[in-house]
Design brief:
Length: 107
């Protein structure tokens, strides 16, 4: 399955750009979001599960901005990291749940 190239949230469309490992390393990231540009960048060399975790992490930043959580940066990062890891673990350990969710949300 192909990696997503965009994601919709609220009234916005975020483009997902996959960057080289060299560029990601230079920036010291696996991924990051720029809500002013509606863009998420992710290291293209990450495996599928780490890409999922990174994408979810960045989307939680999008949610935080959209709903104006206004958390200090350190606190927001902790929420994104722990929630992203928790969701990755939950979905990894419960593939039938993932199948159910995919079925429920099919158009």
């Amino acid at each position: 399955m192909r990696k997503p190239k965009s994601v919709k949230f609220g009234h916005r469309d975020f483009k997902i750009k996959y960057i080289t490992h060299k560029e990601a390393s230079k920036r010291g990231i696996y991924g990051e979001v720029d809500t002013s540009l509606n863009q998420i960048v992710i290291d293209k060399t990450l495996d599928g599960k780490v890409t999922f975790n990174t994408l979810v992490h960045e989307l939680i930043h999008v949610i935080a901005e959209h709903y104006a959580w206004n958390l200090p940066a350190k606190d927001e990062e902790l929420v994104c990291e722990t929630t992203g890891n928790a969701l990755a673990d939950l979905f990894n350990q419960n593939p039938k749940l993932v199948e159910y969710l995919a079925f429920v949300f099919k158009k």
